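FAQ: What does the model actually see?

It sees only this:
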Amino acid sequence: MFLGPAIFQQVVEVTPLVAIDLVVRDAHGRVLLGLRRNRPARNFWFVPGGRILKNERMDNAFLRLTLEELGKPMLRSTARPLGVFEHIYLDSIFGENIGTHYVVLGYLIDLPAGASLVPPAAQHQEYRWVSPGQVEADLSIHQYTGDYFAVLPSRSSAQEC
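And it is asked to produce this:
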């Protein structure tokens, strides 16, 4: 369902949005981050993801978001839930005077060895892979992305599930 900009602005002003974040990890334990183009979190490195649309089933949202954000559709059943997170920003796509509140479902996608992704550049200016040790020292990585690293299972325990 498409909402016009004025209606969507009202929604952002008065209610939380529900989103899915994709924590994509390669065989070396590095996580894919994109440099955000848009508010909120513009100019920060962030995991790919996006909001769930009205009347969109979570499985369909996951397929759509993995295609849009990663360039490859993936099934939600192949990902591991990381938990529910809350992201509150002082700004929004509508500027500095309207904050954004997200309730985010975090999912871990472990890529098999040799797998590659070619994410489209719609939401992010560029992409890079980062190891957990790089996150804390890099202030350009958004705090909310850093929160995902705190709950990441080891690569071997993720494969056992």
